[in-house]
Amino acid sequence: MARYTGPRCKLCRREMTPLMLKGQRCLTDKCPLKGKRKFPPGPPRKRRAKMSDYAVQLREKQKIRRSYGILESQFRLLFADANRMKGVTGDNMMSLLERRLDNVVYRMGFASSRSQARQFVQHGHVTVNGMIVDIPSFRVKEGMEIQIKPNYTGNVMIEDSIKLAKAVDSVPEWLEIDFENRRGKVVRLPVRQDITANFNEQLVVELYSK
Length: 210
Ligand SMILES: [Zn+2]
Hints:
Layout: H1 8-15, H2 53-67, H3 72-84, H4 89-98, H5 101-107, H6 114-122, E1 126-128, E2 131-132, E3 145-148, H7 156-168, E4 175-178, E5 183-186, H8 202-208
Antiparallel strand pairs: 1-2, 1-3, 3-5, 4-5
Helix pairs in contact: 2-8, 3-4, 5-6
């Protein structure tokens, strides 16, 4: 599946919020948003008009979509799934985004960003219930065991990520982690409350309901 390959921190500037596409680097002055360019890309504007409802909805949608590193077509498909499911569409959408295998590897602390996690998956370093799954959009289910392949455990990037994940205690409750064996389990499906990021998914629902 295709992905965005342009400058990642340009998207931080576009949304005027650190999207963490470069992991913790987005919280340092390596991200232009924290450095010298605290303004959106494009030609400078003298006076910023008040954003229309549509613009507000669009910006929020782009923020959420880009945070998870997926392109519009796939995001639309995921939204359609969320819409078909029982319950609140916005909640469903966030849960489905969280259940992507690349996100799960990231949440488990084995990668410092979703794009790094995506690469681990695509390169065949991740197994689900003992079988290699190299599809980043693979949707995990309750009870599934996710593991970084044992012959890949010496990797420095993974070690660093784990150290950080342990330090900041960032692993969500719906996942159970065995850091020593680079393994984790989906103890239950994620719900909206599990996601601490400041997303207003209702705006996406409004955008797509037009
Ligand atoms: Zn950034």
